[in-house]
Each structure stands twice: as structure tokens, then as C-alpha cells.
Amino acid sequence: xxxxxxxxxxxxxxxxxxxxxxxxxxxxxxxxxxxxxxxxxxxxxxxxxxxxxxxxxxxxxxxxxxxxxxxxxxxxxxxxxxxxxxxxxxxxxxxxxxxxxxxxxxxxxxxxxxxxxxxxxxxxxxxxxxxxxxxxxxxxxxxxxxxxxxxxxxxxxxxxxxxxxxxxxxxxxxxxxxxxxxxxxxxxxxxxxxxxxxxxxxxxxxxxxxxxxxxxxxxxxxxxxxxxxxxxxxxxxxxxxxxxxxxxxxxxxxxxxxxxxxxxxxxxxxxxxxxxxxxxxxxxxxxxxxxxxxxxxxxxxxxxxxxxxxxxxxxxxxxxxxxxxxxxxxxxxxxxxxxxxxxxxxxxxxxxxxxxxxxxxx
Length: 362
What we know:
Blueprint: E1 4-8, H1 12-21, E2 26-31, H2 34-41, E3 47-50, H3 56-62, E4 68-71, H4 75-87, E5 92-94, H5 106-111, E6 115-117, H6 126-135, E7 139-151, H7 166-172, E8 177-181, E9 184-188, E10 195-201, E11 204-212, H8 219-222, E12 229-236, H9 240-248, E13 267-279, E14 282-293, H10 302-319, E15 327-329, H11 331-336, H12 340-349, E16 356-361
């Protein structure tokens, strides 16, 4: 009998997750938006259930028969939804990117013997798997990554259009940015320490603007004492910082009305992960770069795919017992678990998400 999976949220990423898992499992997609569910079931062998995901009792009812739950709700709903799932005693993989500290739910998850893996997207997510994996293989001195979702034809700063939840994008520009320098936590304003970064990848030459955002998340805790320098930055086209600051000066507490995500054919996601340290006593630098575009076959955006397939890779590890750890697990825990990182990256490659790796002896 197929294992039963309930996906909470049928948005851009939730749809990808449900579609991918429906290849092998009995999947039910839940959302308050009946139209989103209808469009999903027309294309994939997915069951649907209209559910108010802001109602804890409704969520508990929707997941009562699940072997695994996927949380793909907006960030502002994420923490409470995850708590509801854990209270129900269900294993869960979460991509909701909420602001609260997931470790506040660790004791609850541990008592319920629940495996709760959080932040399993593109970033946080894939950099964390690599950090956990390589921290077991070598002495890492410096770990940095940059990531962005953009559109080629919207290179003008005021033409920016989010490639994921606008509310969560805006949160990146308001939440203080934390990074680690010489083993100490440093807090800076978001959008700070800007730099221009050049990429030549996928037949494109890109000049992008990188700035501080609060993307390290659980790495600050899980890699404390193991990696003395860690930083994350967001990538946008040059001029974006000035554009956002101008918007912020209006004093409006909401995101721009024009920020409606679209499945534009020229949308792309780019990320570079760089670690430096020592392996076998020799200095080494390892760089992973990924460049993903819109998929016309599935009509899934690159951001939805890189996020959703990262999540379904972890979900498969949990479902077959490759990863089984009671309590809250940030993605770095998954990366350091035997067999998990290689399996997740093979899973991504099979779906067209290919990380180019370059090793350099320094």
C-alpha cells in the first residue's frame, strides 16, 4: 500500500511538491483556494481537500491519516502550522520559512517521537546540506552563499517581480541580517554591505548586486564552534537596494501591489556556495554553482522547482527511514547524516537541478 502524504498549501511550491510526490505516493493537497486545487488535480494523480490552513482543528483533521506531512504554507502561518502537525504526532518536512525559532518546538517533537525537518528549500536548504556534509569531511574556515530569483526582462530595478511569496520576499528586506565572523554573531541591517558580483553561467553573463539578508538561520546554531565565518547574501540586478529603500520610505507596511508572482518564461534562479578550509591538512576551496530556468514542459518556475524538489528529496529520505531523528532537524543535520546529501543531490539532478562543483587546492 502506498504511503499517504498530505501537502499543506497548494501555492507555487506546494503544487510542485504534490506533483513530484504523486509519482510514488498517495498524495492529498490541501488549501483554502479551491481553484488552485482544481488546477492541480487536472494534471496529476493528486487528491484534494479544501481546508482553512489557519484553523488548527481543520489542519489536524486533514492530516489524521497521513504518514508524512509537508508544510508549504506562507511564512506567517508556518510556526503555528508546524506546531499543530507535531502535536498530531506526524512526521513533517517544512519549507514555510517562518521567522520564529523552530527549536522552540524541539521538546514537543521529541516527546511525540516526531521527525520534523525544517527549512528544506533552496536557501535555506541546499547550502545547509553541504555545510553539514563537509563539516564532517574537513575543517571549514569560511562558508558563504549568494542566491537570487530574477527575470531576464525585468533587469531594471523598479521592474522587479518576486519569484516566490511577496510577503516572504519583503520580510527579507525588513528582518535584521545575522552572520558569523571570527566565531561571533554579527547583526547588520538588511540590504547592507552591498557588492557587485559577476557570473558567467548557462550561456549568460550576469552582473548582479549582492547584499546582506538573514539567510543563515539555523546554521548560526548548528555550525557554532565548527565554522568560524558564515555569511549569506541575496542577489538582485544592480539598483535594487535603492529601489527597496525608496519603497520603505513611503512608510507603507505592505508589499507593492505590483508584486504578483507570475510563471514568466524568462525567470531564473542562481546560487553560488563557497567554502574554504583544510582537508587532510591542505588548504582547499570548494564552489557549488547552480543556474535554473523556467521549465516549459511542466510550466513550473525555477524557484518553485529548486525549492520543491529539495523538499521532496528530504521527504523521500524520511519516508524510507534513511533519515530518522526525533525532534526538530534543521537541514544541516540531514546533510551530515550518512547517505542523505548524496541522495538529495542525485534526486535534484534527476529533475534538472544540477550543481556544478569546482575544487581548488589553495
